[in-house]
# Entry
Amino acid sequence: MPEKSRNALPSPSRRGVAALAAAASLALLATACTGSARSGANDDPNAQTTIAFWHGWSAPAEVEAIQANIDRFEKANPNITVKVVGNINDDKLNQALRAGGSNGPDVVSSFTTSNVGKFCSSGAFLDLKPFIEKSGLDLGRLIPKPMLDYTQFEGTRCALPLLGDAYGLYYNKDAFEKAGITAPPKTWSEFAKVAEKLTVPRGDGYRQLGFMPNYHGYETVVDHYMAQWNHSYFDARGKSNIAKDPAFKKMFTYQKSLVNSLGGFAKLERYRNTFGDEWGAKHPFQTGQVAMQLDGEWRLGMARDAGVGFEIGTAPMPVPDDEADQYGKGFLSGTIIGIAPQSRKQNAAWKLVKYLTTDTRAVVSFANAIRNVPSTFAALKSPDLKVDPGFRTFLDIARNPASNTPPASVNGSTYQTTLQDFGYQYESGRVKDLQAGLEKTARQIDTDIAQAK
Amino acid sequence: MSAHTLRAKRRRSALRTAAFLSPWLVGFGVFFAYPLVSTVYFSLMKYDGFGTPVFRGPGNWAYVFQDYPLFWPALRNTLWLVLVMVTCRVLFGLGIGLLVTRIRTGTGVFRTLFYLPYLAPPVAATLAFVFLLNPGTGPVDSVLEGLGLPAPGWFTDPAWSKPALTALALWGVGDLMVIFMAALLDVPREQYEAAELDGASPWQRFRFVTLPNISPIVMFAVVTGVIQTMQYYTQPLVAGKVASGIIGGSGQQFEPGYPDKSTLTLPQLVYNLGFQRFDYGSASVVALVLFALAMAFTALLMRRRGGLIQAGDRP
# Structure
């Protein structure tokens, strides 16, 4: 291009630049206002309406079971039509709740119990207190305490439990008999002996491993182990307690000793890499690669569906020797359900939430269908609840007052992920000094929480 | 011509230019300028997607650089991949390009075979590699063990996870092969003939004829490779998740960067902070770091390119 004509190109004026900057600022402010949590429940619950219910279930049997409950709800409430959207994970849910819009959900659910703190504190889920009061529900008489605890955060009840999960010990009864073991272990010292006894080496690997203790062994994560110790993640000031509460040090030390006694971290990891998918038929407990497994109540049905060739035993996970009176407790979690704050049909949405979480027939039929633990006292006692001896173990764990789950936090499960990450480093030997590691991890947890506030 | 007429003519000219430029201006404004300004704005705010952003000043920057434990490992990994993976891909792509331009028989078959892996969807390709390189059940380690060679842990070993990702990237080098092949076929034959007459060895012909001619393409491959690697997300995420064995059950925690943060990259942090923790401020900081790095690398390479292009353009 000739020099002259290049110079003839107009340069942006200052006024133009200022106008552009102003437009950008306005656009920024407009963006900043999206996803506002403010909303009101002023819809007529008896009006003809359609509400959207987003849930995470995706297996055909689960989808069918939730649809059966929805059909019953629609029959009882002919003015409300429910549009059901399945296979929604927390990422999709969070993004939709923030984006807002008329096509968003009215009733929302999540499998991630540990995200309740984030949902309640950010306003992603609506505070249900006014609805509960209006309906005259006495939650304490309806729902077990641990489930009530994990569905609220710092006094804000933004969710209700929709069935629960209880974690216990699965064991291969045939392998037990072969090894001359007559009963499941009740304390951690017994457990270590049983795990060693059940371990059958083959070459530099295993023909059968007593128990996969590594934190990547599917459900053998830090918080599931911790549930068996008397512990407190946070102190009274809300600061991380993991370096001060001796229970954490005891758990990490015990798990590491288990890793060492069963062959060492590297050997166990090599063996772990031969395991099939946790959610498929080739799960190591189902294939007989491990003789004991820490898992949720759903494993019973999955293992039977996979057609395992041995008898399955269930029991609570062991407890420390000096806390033997606590035997029977376990880790709890579950699906939570709430209302989207952007919903313009909050009263209709509450009708569905109330039905799914407190109607005994709804809770029992859904629990029977997807083999989860019912989340109300009435459903737990219902004669319609299908209970076999294996499943009863988990119902008892769910009812045990000492059963527990990590407390909700403003940044969701981030603190658990941080602690879990420390667990990987400690079990693999990359971190040697346990106390110093726990102190560093506690500082990190506090910093992350401060950043989220 | 009066000053008034001249001004009116200039204004019309400016308006015409602006009209022709408007599609680009709209695209640039909506898809680049606005997001960039927004990212800078949000990097100074506390914002979780609800309510109004609250000014936090440099707090997010301090958190990311000082307190966020995943930032420095992710930055180191990203730089490792930029230096090693991009270099390997360019050299390997050039090597394959040279090979397929010299093959006399079955040219079409070989070109297709080398190009096909590039068409495999990244998730499927990564899953296949994790399966092939599984230290417990994968055929690669079985063969290595059969030969009496050490069998690495690949995606389960922090020391081997990035080389395994590099191997995956080399397998899908078909895009570069095609570009290099086109450039190599475009080198004037007479220059090779002249060099041969002057007694140049094969290496000298490559060094003084081929390389100067294809240097702009080499630079293009490096610059686009660097930018792509800065955005490297799918393969390390899938590899880390699948190799960890934790592929997401009900409410399970996500551990990014398995094993031992060795497959963490900066784009994963943007997702983790922005769309899992909903800490948009810190996510914006990481996005800006990525932007600055991409700009710095590109500027550096473009400065080097000046000399290469001149050499290539020399008649």
User: Anything to note?
Assistant: The beta strands of chain B are 45-46, 54-55. Chain B has 13 helices and two strands. Chain B touches chain A through 47 residues (CB under 8 Å).
